[in-house]
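task queued by scheduler; priority normal; single chain, no ligands, no partner chains; default sampling; output format set to structure tokens
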Amino acid sequence: MTPPRQNIHPIQSADEALKSTADSSGKADQAGAPRRSLPRRIVDFYVDGFRSMTVGRNLWLLIIIKIFILFFVFKLFFFPNLLERDYDTDSQRAAAVRKTLIDR
């Protein structure tokens, strides 16, 4: 059974957090860190980081919107599917690509 998670104050040092976690669980390795698997520690690191974000959430939202615009909207309007437009079958498209690659 895993011990209940403790809320760590943002100003609290990493050493204090490890000591308080190790003391409350009763289980610790030689370095004093709690015994949790590496994937679990990685997930906890990111979950705690995103949970405590304030400005970062808005920035991530802007990044996701910008990526959507770059990949989806630009693809629709600026990069038409020329092979599909100019050739009827897959074999014709493949032949056109081979010819273009060889001729260059």
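post-processing summary
- The chain is about 65% helix and 0% strand.
- Residues 55-78 form the longest helix (24 residues).
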